[in-house]
Amino acid sequence: MRLKIKNLIINFGLLLIIIETLTPIYFMIKYSISDRDSIITGGDVIPLWPYHPTFMVYKYLLSSPKFIDVFLNSVKVAGFTLLFALMLGVPMAYGLSKIKSVYRDFLLVFLMSIRVFPDIVSVIPITEFFIKLNLDNTILGVSLAHTLLALPYVIFILLADFEKVPPEIELQAYNLGASKTTTFLKIIMPMVIPSIIVSSIYIFILSWDEFIFSYFILGYGEIETLPVYLNKMLSFQPPQNILMGVAVLLSLPVFVFVLLIQKRLLINIKEGALKE
Amino acid sequence: MKILKEYLFELIIIAPATLFLLGFFILILFYLIGVSFFPQGDFTLSVYSAIFEDQEFKRIVLRTIIFVFIGTPLELILSIIFAILLFNKGILSSIARSLYIVPFAIPTIVTAIVLFVLFDYPGGHINVLLQGKYFIFPFKIISEPINWRSSEFLSLFVSMLGKLWRDLPISTFIILTGLSNIYKEEIDSAKVLGAGDFQILKHIVIPELIPSIFTVLFLRSIEFWKEFIFPFILAPRYYLISTVIENYYHNWNMVDKASAVSLILLGFIVITIILIRFSMNLLRFFTFRLVKNYEIKN
To answer: How far B146 CA sits from the closest chain A CA (Å)?
Structure first.
């Protein structure tokens, strides 16, 4: 009897976790497919499921030049961030993996400490600096700021993988006459391609949904990324179905990519937790 | 010099990223110090004294401290409960385990806006639900709809809910990892010796979870201090330290004050880290003493 009650409590708790996890996502999707009558109810209770579900909002958004423009801006920013972060991060991680010196760990800790600054703390100096360089309200400016956020993660992920490459492979390449550059580009780098792909997804997600830097650097100018656009929309109090349509389209790539790298993500959280 | 010769190629390839990170590190630190301590060129504490004399700022600091000191333990307690529930085997547990990464896959701003809509006044879903108007929950908790954004307590409560929803999976996973490291034999032995569930939880599970608990406290307290998006969207009238930085910068164009508050926020984070580290060492010391005393007695 006691065991039954215990199991009942556990299952009830688990059910609550499932409901708690899915509720915001359910309502996000529900609103995005709601028809006008399901949102503007004229004082009646707002329904839990739309009266006439429709994809009208998605059709509207995907045919809106403004939305397409903002969407493409987000793609451009994430693309440039990806490019910069990999260009800087891959050689950095490889170089660090080869240096066997006490100075290496010191350098690593020092460089990683850039992430000690909360985003809201580091955003003002960077925004002011970019204003002086005329990089504010530009895709390049936001991409550089996002690169700063992404780079420590890229180095952290790739360093561990470069360190796992057996040194004998490099020695064989040198013995066969390959230079250090050739060995790095043609032999070692292809061996860590899976990690580079995972890092790329990390970078993309980070840049895609980043809000603070995009909001400060783009300010109230012409260029907007999706999170900035969503925030601006909120101040105009648009119909909730349009707001949620944008939210779904913003979440979709992140959702797909997180599911793709779910296993790796959990390993990294675990490693981070155990290091403390 | 020896290093330079030995690692010339490596040093060349790490140079661009090093300069990039180092450059921004120096820029951030020097800018914040320069603008807040040397606003006119000479050293002065005038910016800081103006901030600390401001009664509103004192309220903001107090509000942030309450936000951090309620949010962090709440997240810890919930993550322990969630982890213990998820640790059980069964169909529901498997479904919950596969789903609990989902909040991590939703951008923070999206979560904040979903909550903004759900807690809308007067006709948002939460108000309708609490009024008992839905068949799935026919209990009338409130008679009139609540304006969640008009009260300091409620708007920050909703912000905290959002933060908890988004961050709980990570904290739960950290605790779950700690739980997985507990030997099953230890629990079985305790059961054989007559220990009940509560005794096992108190004397085995919680002590073994201490490293994971401190990791959650450590990471989450920092997260709560620097939380920006939820209070920015859901409690725009009731500033926390992070959101007042934005207010000083965008609405008042006070770069010096915004920089000073940024350094103050950094200071609070550093103090919290030191306090958590200190209490962790203290707890380790006492746990060690307790074990020692127990061994001597037996």
So the answer is: 15
Spell out which residues of chain A touch residue B165, defining contact as CB-CB under 8 Å.
Answer: 20, 24
**Please, are residues B73 and A223 in contact by the beta-carbon 8 Å criterion?**
no
Burial of B147 (0-12, 13-18, 19+ CB in 10 A): middle
The reply to whether residue B249 touches residue A147, judged by beta carbons under 8 angstroms, is: no
Burial code (b: 16+ CB inside 10 Å, e: under 16) for A155-177 equals bbbbbebbeebeeeebeebeeee
199-228 of A, contacting B, C-beta below 8 A: 208-209, 211-212, 216, 227
Of the partner residues B18, B211, B242, the one whose CB lies closest to the CB of residue A111: B18
Query: Does A266 sit within 8 Å of B106, measured CB to CB?
Result: no
Domain carrying residue A81: 65-275
pLDDT at B238: 96
Count of structural domains within chain A: 1
Residue matched to tokens 């409130």:
B142
State the Cα–Cα distance between residues B297 and B15, nearest whole angstrom: 60
On the question of a cis peptide bond just before residue B16, with omega within 30 degrees of 0, the verdict is no
Does A111 contact B21 at a Cβ distance shorter than 8 Å?
yes
Query: By residue range, what is the domain housing residue B245?
Result: 45-109+148-297
Look up the ipTM and state it: 0.89
Query: How far is Cα A208 from Cα A77, in angstroms, rounded to an integer?
Result: 8
Q: What is the CATH number of the domain that holds A94?
A: 1.10.3720.10
Whether B242 sits inside 8 A of A273 (CB atoms) is no
Which positions ≥6 away from B153 have C-beta within 8 Å?
none
Question: What CATH number is associated with residue B173?
Answer: 1.10.3720.10
Q: Are residues A229 and A245 in contact, defined by beta-carbon separation less than 8 angstroms? A: no
Note the pLDDT tens digit of each residue in B219-260.
899 999 999 999 999 999 999 999 999 999 999 999 999 999
Residue with tokens 């790796």: A264
CA torsion A166-A171-A173-A178 (nearest 10°) is 130
- Which residue in A2, A9, A17 has the most chain B C-beta atoms within 10 A of its own C-beta, making it the best mutation to test that interface? A17
Q: With bands split at pLDDT 50, 70 and 90, how would you rate the model's confidence at A102?
A: confident
Nearest to A121 by CA among A185, A216, A34: A216
The reply to whether A48 touches chain B by the CB within 8 Å rule is yes
